[in-house]
Write a structure and sequence with these properties.
The protein has about 220 residues and is an alpha+beta fold. It has 7 helices and 8 strands. Strands 2-3-4-7-6-5 form a 6-stranded antiparallel beta barrel. The longest helix has 15 residues.
Length: about 220
Amino acid sequence: MHDTPDPVAVARRIAERSGRLGISEVELARRAAMAPRYLRHLLEAGPGFDPGGFVRIAAALDSSRDELVSGRADAPPGHGGPGPHPRLQNLTEAQCWELVGTHGIGRIGLPVEPGPVVLPVNYVVDRASFAFRTAEHSTAAPADGAAVSFQVDHIDEYLGRGWSVLALGPAHQVTDPVELERLAGLPGASPWAGGDRPRWVRIRPEEISGRRLIAG
């Protein structure tokens, strides 16, 4: 069940937190007011065995029980580790477009000085292209015709599987008033970052590819 914490993952988070703070297992047991042997038993048994004990462990680590048991809500994906027997599967172009859907969050890679920059943007899919809104003088507003990359992915942290799609092609500013009005009416067109973002950028991929991570 998804609601049952994995004792191995919980023990790993506690060990990582202890390591960052420079606290040994013996010192952690002392701070949590329990015998080292009992602490080891708790880590092996999991939070369901003694919920109050994990509250004391969390307090000793200047953390919260929820963070130790479930992980940080804002942590990047990948903390759960790979699933059983992982393998990669190449995606067809049609599968790539199906996975990115009609809109979502992607990352645009821009060729700027002194080096490439990757920025998150919320996008819409429109006629085999990606389009997004940005401010007039934003870093995410590439020069017209600039070669860029655009990447979208999804990770299932619990099952250890997911997919990633990468598109390569030129970016162009949308200037036609009719097109601008139509794009603004598409689902997901409102910029998450808010503010005045009148500029629409379209990326029509010359190449799109993807891979799916399968487990089990």
